[in-house]
Amino acid sequence: MLTENELHLSADVLVIGGGPAAAWAAWAAASQGVKVIIVDKGFLGTSGAAAASGNGIMAPSPENWDKVLSERYRIGKNLANSRWIERVIEKTWLSLPLVENWGYRFPKENGESVRQSYYGPEYMRVLRKNLLRVGVQILDQSPALELLLADDGSVAGARGVQRQHHRNYTVRAGAVVLANGGCAFLSKALGCNTNTGDGLLMAVEAGGELSSMEASNHYAISTAFNATVTRGVPFGWASYSDEAGNDLGGYVDGRRDPSFLPNALLKGSVYARLDRATPEVKAVIEKSHFISFLPYKKAGIDPYTERVPVTLILEGTVRGTGGIRLTDDSCGTKVPGLYAAGDAASREFLAGLASGGGGPNAAWAISTGQWAGVGAATFAKSLGAQANERVARPTGQAGLRSPMTERSPSPSLSSETFDSEAIVRGVQDQMFPLEKNYLRSEQGLLDSLAKLETLWQQVQGNPKQDTVRDVEFSRRAAALTAVARWAYFSALHRTETRSEHIRMDYPETDPNQRYYQATGGLERLWVRRDWIQDALAQPVVEIASGGRNAIATPPTLTTQTTP
């Protein structure tokens, strides 16, 4: 039923995703004179986390680059890479005037544009308009579900479904950019329900690797009565109390302690009141984070005088770090012709295992999107005019095809389909609780991995495929399960506490564990240590000396693989 009117297209570069990273990648590729198609799960310009609200941008003026670079390296706790941090800062600062030329209006002070944040809906509207201007073909409501591989192991395009036309589609391409976001496990965090880890599963099936997946447990604060808006800035001026009204503190040296709220919520209900905000602060946060105040207005609550219950929502890798492992400066992956950008890519070079949420995330999307787009265009050109005539095969497995039923002669297995919604609930039961995902331990991780393994075996069965929605949701259930397994398997093997990765049985940071963890595998999971060889903290010392030339070419990151 789905294949009768299948759509077949071809391009030099296919970009998968619909957020800032995807838009920048498509524009950068088109700027190289190649044909570009971009496919989005939703409507490019309104779907995704960036389009849902405003965001800061890590784009300091050049005189502040050294300071910001030093701070980002410090936050990364010796796992970030100074050369990549500088690359991101510089590329972002140089790119924002383009957005202004395309029609976005940044606020002005003393006649000069202040390019430190963006209003998501308008920002994404401008990016979409620019893509149409340069001739990029956009397929909305068209989630990509699997990659195509040529006989030589290089990527050759992708397949997916179009909801509104009730059909499959195939796009043959010389190169592909995965920029379809991270994974928030359908937690209802604002704008994140399109972020279900599809790109991570697609990359691994094609032969790619992931990295730093242990940093996939970022939680964000939200009001409990409308648990979706995860903008934490206003809560920096809150007083916290328990059910009885007792003050809970929550601040260290005047700043909100990030570990306070998770530990407090494990003991009982927590309430917040924004009574620390001065009139000047109120004016700023209500303007820059206006969406945070909509739940209060709808409920008729004055957040400055009334207590409201608060909670934490899992944002996973969206504000975490883990993602597809990058292998070169053009954001290439282990698979020839496959590139990754934005939240789909591991942000370990920028953040270590810490969160890159907010300004760093926005800068990472702008810069990696362009590097990946140019890299993909260059690769596609190298294949010549016959690139899309290569013999190619689809790589999708769980949730699309049933290896289990193919191996079994039992007629019951060939007809019975697995319950996608039940699979999703099972994954969430292991990923949402703070006592499992925030405070980790060996036994807890092993228990969760055993349950996730059972779910993974279930999605090897027969997927329901009566409608395009059935196909999409079956595949989504498989992706969520796969990402959860990789996250906990990586967490099990990093036996220390570092940044967002907290091990109750290993509470200290181990200076000898200065490596990234690559991971992958479908039926059998694996982890590999990629040791960091550059001199410890050398970039910070060079910055302190005040020499711009000293940090322009710091030691290059190299890795040594151990089994």
TrEMBL record:
SUPFAM superfamilies (UniProt xref): FAD/NAD(P)-binding domain, Succinate dehydrogenase/fumarate reductase flavoprotein C-terminal domain
Active site: 256
Matches recorded under InterPro entries: FAD-dep_OxRdtase_2_FAD-bd, FAD/NAD-bd_sf, Fum_R/Succ_DH_flav-like_C_sf, Fum_Rdtase/Succ_DH_flav-like_C, SdhA/FrdA/AprA, Succ_DH/fumarate_Rdtase_cat_sf
Compositionally skewed regions (Polar residues) per UniProt: 405-417
FAD-dependent oxidoreductase 2 FAD-binding domain span: 12-214
GO molecular function ontology, one term from the record: steroid dehydrogenase activity, acting on the CH-CH group of donors
Domain Fumarate reductase/succinate dehydrogenase flavoprotein-like C-terminal intervals: 439-512
Domain of life: Bacteria
Region: Disordered, residue numbers: 388-418
Keywords: Flavoprotein, Oxidoreductase, Plasmid
Protein name stated in the entry: Succinate dehydrogenase/fumarate reductase, flavoprotein subunit
